[in-house]
Amino acid sequence: MSNYSDRRDFLKVLIGGTGAVYLALQGCGNEQTELKNVLGPNTKTKLKRQRFTIAHQYIREKSLPVDAKYSQELTCDVVIIGAGASGLSAALTLHDAGYDVLLLENEDQVGGAGVYGEMHDIKYPYGSVYFVEYSDEIKSICTRTGLKPLLAPEDAVLHKGQLIHNFWSDSSLQTLDLSKREIDGMKRFRDVLLDDTKVPSYPISRTLTPYEQELDALSAKQYLSQYASPYLEALLDLYSRSSMGGTLNDANAFCLLNFYSAEIGSEFGRDRYTFPGGMHALYNAIASLIPKEKVKTSHLAFSLKNTMKGVQVTCVNDKNEIYVIKAKRAIMTGQKHVSSFMIEDLPDDQRSAMMTMQYPPYATMHFMCNEELFPNQIMDVWTPEASTFCTDIICSNAMQEKQKNSNSYVYSIFGAMPQEQRNILLDDTLLAKHGIDIIQKTMQYLGKSLESIDQIEVFGWGHALAIPYPGSHNGPAQLASRRHGNIYFGASDNDAASSVENALANGFGSGREVIQSLT
Known about the structure:
This protein is α/β, with parallel strands linked by helices. The chain has a domain at about 185-265: Guanine Nucleotide Dissociation Inhibitor, domain 1 (Orthogonal Bundle). Helices cover about 30% and strands about 25% of the residues. The chain has 16 helices and 21 strands. It has helices spanning about 5-15, 55-60, 85-95, 135-145, 170-175, 180-195, 210-215, 220-225, 230-245, 255-260, 280-290, 335-340, 350-355, 430-445, 475-480, 500-519, and strands at about 30-35, 45-50, 70-80, 100-105, 115-120, 120-125, 130, 150, 155-160, 160-165, 275, 295, 300-305, 310-315, 320-330, 360-370, 380, 390-395, 410-415, 455-460, 485-490. It has a 9-stranded mixed sheet. Strands 3, 4, 12, 13, 14, 15 and 21 form a 7-stranded mixed sheet that branches. A hairpin with a 2-residue loop joins strand 9 and strand 10 (about 160-165). Helix 3 (about 85-95) runs parallel beside helix 16 (about 500-519), helix 4 (about 135-145) packs across helix 11 and helix 9 crosses helix 10 (about 255-260). The longest helix has 19 residues, at about 430-445. It is globular. The protein starts with 6 loop residues before the first helix and ends with a helix.
């Protein structure tokens, strides 16, 4: 067992061979602040974030704490970095095949974007809400753990004070006070979503078809212009900002068609599934099938390199204890732009491709009311007339296994922010002001009193979503996720498109790929 000789040598390990550092807002866990009496006489506002303190201290600031110390060396067959959906599914695949895995997670809990909060026994999602493909892998996990997903309630659109259910049906579209040209355009768009030959799929292939290349090159806004419907564009811009991390100008048509094809409702055979509080139940179920000692939370991996016999990963825990892990293979399931600074000998072209990946700052606002804002059978309400401050309102009471007989109702607002507002996530006052301002405007828009709010929680996501920007799917994504020696990649941003299905598919896929390489 060796020790680092001095701070200078240790910083070489910390920074790696690139000479660059990375800025990462990772972790949620215990980095939280509670502010009392911020809004109304009885309101408490609680702030939580992805964890970033240790990452900033060790990487961005290049500051080695005086109490940092080398602890021990660990060995395993495969080390996996990141315990979100991708990392968990990769770890389960390898564990089931009999391999010794070690899963590292910077947060103090597993689940990635699938974490949740709870108010008055009502669970609500901080991030990932539902899934649409009840795949064989998910069915197997549910069978093994006794987990049962819920059929997700339908969405609705709030149009001029009226909730429109089954929005994409002909009868509902006809109720909109729009021109025949606009309504016809919306119907044509809906019919494209129902044509499986027109909707591209994930994970993306190494070589796209000409049609897929065309959709990737077009922004979602450019694609939608053919339908001549400003209302359609306004509605889908809400969806794009909420689910894809950017406006219609920021996202490509490829991702829009794939993602939104699952949103048009069970009336068209497009069922969705969820759990109380969102996807955390599924990710916890996966974790329960992996030995606890093989999952190390509150461990930040910060250096990774290929060796003659495999890989070497260096990580630090919350006590500033340094671990060196030697394995035959490694799977990176964190964000690509962070990976680009962690891997010491990464080729320049792959590093450049990783750096093109875009991750918006993102905040989710959650509040509990003592009155019902929307009927319990609606999961998500889209708000085109409130587009400057609110995209949609998630109704968590509708996602519970049993309806609560109480006067407590929990609602959530999800919202990406411009890159220049990233500093908001690091400042208690700014983050609280941002969240409360959105909630205030939303309640005013709904014609509801702020006095009905009893509790508020604001969650700051540093890099929760990868924006599927135009051109990302035809070259950059494939190059960024290319195997590098004994290092593999498995995450939703392998395709520059964040979704439950994509994260699981890339995780299971990278696990199988590693098994094949070890066989």
